[in-house]
Amino acid sequence: MKNKISPKKVCLVISILWLLLPVNTISQTVKKNTADTGWRQLFNGKDLLGWKHVGKGTSVLEYGMIHGKGGMGLLYYANEKFSNCTIRVVYKMQKENSNSGVFIRIPIQPLEEWMPVFYGYEVQIDNHPETSGEDDYHITGTLYSLTKPLAKPGKPGPEWNTMEITLDGPHTMVYVNGQKVTDYTEGDPTPERKFDFEPMRGRRPDVGYIGLQNHGDDDVVYFKEVAVKPIVKK
Q1: What pLDDT sits at residue 6?
Q2: For the whole model, what pTM was predicted?
Q3: Which end of the chain has the least Cβ crowding within 10 Å, N or C?
Q4: How many CA atoms, within 13 angstroms, populate the side-chain half-sphere of residue 80?
Q5: Average pLDDT, the chain
Q6: What is the mean pLDDT of residues 125-132?
């Protein structure tokens, strides 16, 4: 992917905006709409109410699942920002391996597809990054290009996978199929950028929007559940 945007020109503006904008966090809204399990579904399997698409391609609903068509683009949940919660995403790849991602800590509502890439985090979905010249820092469950996996539990298509992403202030943990892949706290060391399409380094906000990537017609991933649950502090 070739970057046509100069990220350095907008980095300062983005940083100021996410600090100044008012925040609607999960902690106040989840309590009103949870089932007995504590999970609140953001996707009801019937429509994309509350979701918006930016960038190329589109996101469609088919047989109770979300999947991308064309790309690269992002379907993000526009109704609120999230923090101090666990996000559960259930997905499967169309092929033996397909490429997508779950975006977190997006500072402001994006107007195009590259802003979340550079200034949010992508929790990667790609079991074989080596096929495109990438390494373990780009494998399923990692913060794309930033963290090395603690395990590689991603299942090939068409098996279902469950990804749980916990946002606890500046701390991010990712479990895939019950195994911890990422344990990262803002400020932890990260490798230098290898490609111009990798995210900018630096701190992300504790609170942000979340989204699902549609990578392209050759990389279709189906999502059947997107749910959130607040962290209960003892």
Answers
A1: 53
A2: 0.87
A3: C
A4: 12
A5: 89
A6: 96
